[in-house]
Specification:
heterodimer; A: alpha/beta; two-stranded parallel ribbon; globular; B: 59 residues; 2 helices; 42% helix
Chain lengths: 207, 59
């Protein structure tokens, strides 16, 4: 075993990555590219304002209003603008509709492209090697990792995202939710069901 | 070409392991890096193509 002689600096618990990132931030501030307060604001936006609750509002409205559903499926980038809090959706967004015959699920085999404006930042598993590599080859096995089992007759359609084109899954509205408000319906809509890696919650779970 | 930057259909990476109640950032530095990337993108000091090139240079 190699003798460990390295003295740990007292008074600092910063990891090597913390130090690197701090150094980078300091350089960019000194060069006049960024202001720390602006970074605080961006972090806060992603922690509190931009998340799957936005997508859930979109889906709930599409479940209730036929015209909005049509508009969403025709041009999702345009249809979701009223819900996004940070201005126009930058990428081309396409909504893909689940039916009893077809289940849609999204991936980015190249990296982590994701409908960030409506779902927030992608979860770690979405960026993981297992998900990116396997989904296009054995989607049913990947769905099983999420505890989702679909009828054998259901076609599974996998959508591979790009830097320019992102997808949002429009799940099937659960039975037994007739007359529910958008706010009630939104409680059924999970992040995973808008990726296609899950299904909406059972209505009995939220009542 | 396939590889870590284009993984569709590759074998051998095991199961997908979702993390229940995953935080937006696991470490504060993740938020700082994202924010720097976004802030620099505003005036195109850092673009998606530059970013992709840099990522592919790492492996």
């Amino acid at each position: 075993m190699v003798e460990h002689k390295h003295d740990h600096e007292e008074g600092s618990n910063l990891s090597e990555m913390d130090l690197r990132v701090r150094a980078l931030e300091t350089i960019l501030v000194e060069k006049g590219y960024i202001e720390p307060a602006a970074l605080d604001r961006i972090v806060e936006l992603y922690e509190t304002k931009i998340g799957p609750h936005i997508g859930a509002q979109v889906i709930a409205k599409a479940w209730r209003e036929r015209e909005f559903r049509k508009a969403l499926l025709e041009d999702a980038s345009k249809a979701v603008n009223e819900f996004t809090q940070v201005g126009r959706v930058g990428e081309h967004l396409i909504a893909v509709e689940n039916t009893p015959e077809v289940h849609n699920i999204i991936v980015c085999t190249l990296c982590s492209c994701y409908p960030t404006d409506v779902l927030g930042l992608p979860p770690t598993w979405y960026k993981s090697f297992p998900y990116r590599s396997r989904l296009v080859k054995e989607p049913r096995a990947v769905l099983a990792d999420f505890g989702v089992e679909l009828p054998a007759a259901t076609t599974i359609r996998v959508w591979d995202s790009t830097a320019e084109t992102r997808y949002l899954v429009l799940p099937m509205r659960p039975a037994g939710t007739e007359g529910w408000s958008e706010a009630q319906l939104a409680k059924l809509i999970t992040r995973d069901c808008m990726i296609g890696a899950g299904l909406p919650r059972n209505p009995s779970e939220v009542q | 070409m396939d590889g870590v930057h284009d993984m569709g259909g590759m074998d051998g990476f095991g199961k997908v392991e979702p993390e229940p109640n995953e935080p937006v950032f696991h470490h504060p530095w993740e938020g700082r890096v994202l924010a720097m990337s976004r802030a620099l993108g505003v005036f195109r000091a850092w673009t998606i193509d530059t970013s992709r090139y840099a990522i592919e240079m790492m492996a």
